[in-house]
Specification:
Elements: E1 4-7, E2 20-21, E3 28-29, E4 31-35, E5 42-45, H1 51-58, E6 73-79, H2 94-107, E7 111-115, H3 128-145, E8 150-154, H4 158-166, E9 171-174, H5 184-191, E10 194-198, H6 216-233, E11 241-244, H7 253-261, E12 272-275, H8 281-287, H9 296-308, E13 313-316, H10 319-333
Helix pairs in contact: 2-3, 3-4, 4-5, 9-10
């Protein structure tokens, strides 16, 4: 029977001699929850689990596109689409997109994730040609003006990724974890780019129709583990792989909460971890806010819990609010660097 090892994260300034740092960062653990299918979880001292599992959890993840992840990174969301769930149609024009890029950079975003296709629940796929048209002029302007911020392209399509990476993007954020387009890995290798492998259960058009898992936490973990193996086989090293459990992508509210409660499990995969939960429906349901643009406080609450569990990157809409929250959180966790 396969066993799974979740470091139980701690942020207290007192550490004992048997503690380890998650991903060589500021979150530490001295106990591990051992999980398995069809059995009750139990807790053991961290020193009692296999050495190779400890190594995966504690090894340094390096930087991301030249950015240090010693402290959490904010990735700003820029949807150049007419139908995204939160801000569809707001940043469709190149001028509006560039203005928003500047705003997010000033507010504290270190990465900006540009997307030309909505992947909200129920969204219908658009052609590669249309998606390219939506993002190309934005990246051409970025390449010309060279704003002091890094860029990611949010796409499932290798042709779109090829254009964006050729114009200066450093990462592809693929909601299909490179399962949609068989040529995606070769584009990543060509540019020596980073790749974010996100878990999703089905296509956006149908993924929220009665999603089901035997064990959502372990099913998502196993799926991402397989995608990491495939990426490495294609020539992408772990140092350039980011993983995202895919909150809201083929998951109901209970699935989302189960993943969020035990996010620290994903450090056992040995990659940087990104969370994209900003403004999502479950936040509105729990926080009783129907309007996505008014869900900043709920998004911050989820983001801070993710940071407590060692997540390195938060993908968010509301940069100013998250920047302030993360700055205060970091000052308490890293007082010497504040």
């Amino acid at each position: 029977m396969s066993l799974y090892y979740r470091p139980i994260p701690r942020v207290d300034p007192w550490k004992n001699s048997q503690s380890f740092a998650i991903a060589a960062g500021g979150i530490w653990f001295d106990q591990v929850e051992v999980l398995g299918r069809g059995r009750e979880p139990y807790v053991v001292p961290a020193s009692a689990i296999p050495e190779e599992r400890i190594h995966e959890i504690i090894s340094s993840r390096g930087g991301l596109m030249g950015i240090s992840i010693d402290k959490p990174i904010l990735m700003g969301i820029l949807n150049a689409t007419p139908d995204s769930f939160s801000d569809g149609g707001v940043f469709e024009t190149t001028d509006a997109a560039l203005k928003q890029i500047k705003n997010m950079r000033v507010q504290g975003a270190q990465i900006i994730d540009v997307g030309g296709e909505s992947t909200k629940p129920g969204a219908v796929a658009v052609s590669q040609e249309l998606e390219c048209k939506r993002i190309k002029s934005i990246f051409e302007e970025i390449e010309e003006k060279k704003p002091n911020v890094s860029f990611s392209i949010d796409t499932r399509k290798s042709g779109v990724a090829n254009i964006a990476l050729g114009l200066g993007a450093g990462m592809v954020n693929d909601v299909s974890a490179m399962g949609y387009d068989g040529e995606m890995s070769s584009v990543i290798v060509k540019y020596k780019a980073h790749i974010c492998l996100m878990h999703s259960n089905g296509d956006p058009e149908t993924m929220q129709i009665a999603p089901y898992y035997d064990n959502v936490l372990l099913d998502v973990y196993d799926s991402l583990s397989l995608r990491i193996v495939e990426a490495e086989k294609a020539g992408i090293p772990k140092s350039r792989i980011v993983i995202d459990p895919g909150i809201g992508f083929g998951k109901n509210i209970d699935h989302n909460l189960a993943l969020l409660k035990r996010l620290s499990l994903f450090h056992s995969l040995g990659c940087k971890v990104l969370l994209g939960a900003s403004r999502k429906k479950f936040i509105g349901l729990i926080g009783q806010e129907k309007i996505p643009s008014k869900r900043a406080l709920g998004s911050v609450a989820v983001g801070l819990e993710a940071l407590r569990q060692g997540v390195q990157v938060l993908r968010v809409h509301d940069i100013a609010e998250h920047y302030q929250a993360v700055a205060l959180w970091s000052a308490m966790l890293f007082p010497k660097a504040s």
